Amino acid sequence: MLTRTSRRTVTFSHPFVLEGIDGVQPAGDYIVETDEELVDGLSFPAYRRVATVILLPARAGGTTLAQAVTVNPLDLERAEQADAAMAETTA
To answer: 57, CA 20 to 30 Å: which among 7, 27, 29, 37?
Structure first.
């Protein structure tokens, strides 16, 4: 099965929380990778999302260099929307 990966940068202006990730993440730029696989048997190319991963930077003084964490894309979208809403209210 063919798989493709797309990568985008998400910028959070405020600290945020995502389900499945311990603690509050600091504001900043985060790389999000989405893996999709080709759906077989169709007369046209169609892809199905199989994983969404956010890359978390190392925390100062921590023992982990960096972390790739699988997240629910809907939770990520809600966090982005909440961040945008906070930016509008503080502008």
So the answer is: 37
